[in-house]
Amino acid sequence: MPGYLSRLCQMPTLRINRRSLIKHLCASGGLLAAPWGWPLRAFAQNPGSRTFGIDVSIWGGEIDWHDVVAKLNPRFVFVQAYHMGKDEASSYANPRFANYRRALQRLELLHGAYLRCHANAETLIRKFLAVYSPQIGDILPTLDIEEDYDNRCSLPVQKRVNQIEEMIQLVSTRISGHKPMIYTKARVWSELGNPPQFADCPLWVVDYHPTGEPTLPPAWSRFSFWQYAENLHGNGVQGTYDSDYFNGSEEDLRAYLLQQ
């Protein structure tokens, strides 16, 4: 792992639009100091404005993106790039990722990639970074921390938490020290002991109801994205998709994009 980290550090890196992010957070009163002063905690803070988007995985099937835009008009899309299983044999790249990404680029739809993580897989982060190479204009990449990290996992809690920290560090080397987003739900985070040290990562929270406010893990006081509905059908998607809100305006969302 140390040798791999060294090679990653020598690879080209991308930045987020720090000036836009600072402007967004200051305007909303949400510029929160990180424990070491950097990186900034990238939270959307404008409760009066939410922006609709969707996310898709390997289960999206064939997608007519023009139809999706015409019927749903999402302002952003997240796409699964890689699925970590408990070992290499049960792990796989999303074979549709590259096609989805090219279509979204042609349509100039803001988009980002996510990695479905597994607590038993300590070295497979390199597979994600082989499938997904961060590009200018991408939304910050996301680590998907789901049920594989709850108390049904046979690993001790601290080992699960340590593995999340290692993955954050590895992805962070590719985006100029900025932190990736964390996708999780309050129950899973509770069963990890509610670790507070990842609050510098913007939160994409999972809580399935379309109105009101989502329940957040205690480490975060605000969410950046909220997945509020899952396993939806139609509207140009052959398989399934999920619905999300960004906690801010479309202009605010641009503060989360990678820059040169």
Fold blueprint:
Layout lengths: L1 H8 L5 E2 L1 H10 L23 E6 L8 H7 L4 E8 L8 E2 L3 H10 L3 E7 L8 H7 L10 E3 L12 H16 L8 E4 L1 H6 L11 E4 L18 E10 L2 E10 L3 H4 L4 E2 L1
Parallel strand pairs: 2-3, 3-5, 5-6, 6-7, 7-8, 8-9
Antiparallel strand pairs: 1-11, 2-10, 3-4, 9-10
Question: Can you describe what's shown?
Answer:
It is a single chain. The protein has 260 residues and is α/β, with parallel strands linked by helices. The chain has one domain: TIM Barrel (Alpha-Beta Barrel), CATH 3.20.20.80. Helix content is 26%, strand content 22%. The protein contains eight helices and eleven strands. Strands 2-3-5-6-7-8-9-10 form an eight-stranded mixed beta barrel. Strand 7, helix 7 and strand 8 form a beta-alpha-beta unit. The protein is globular and about 45 Å long.
Please report the distance between the alpha carbons of the first and last residues: 27 Å
Strand order of the largest sheet: 2-3-5-6-7-8-9-10
Low-pLDDT runs: 1-12, 22-45
The structure class reads: alpha/beta
What's the total helix number?
A: 8
**Count of beta strands:** 11
Round the mean pLDDT to the nearest integer and report it. 83
Radius of gyration: 17 Å
Overall spatial form: globular
CATH H level, superfamily name? Glycosidases
CATH class: Alpha Beta
Q: H/E series, N to C?
A: HEHEHEEHEHEHEHEEEHE
Total domain count: 1
CATH architecture: Alpha-Beta Barrel
CATH topology: TIM Barrel
Q: What does the main sheet amount to? A: 8 strands, mixed, barrel
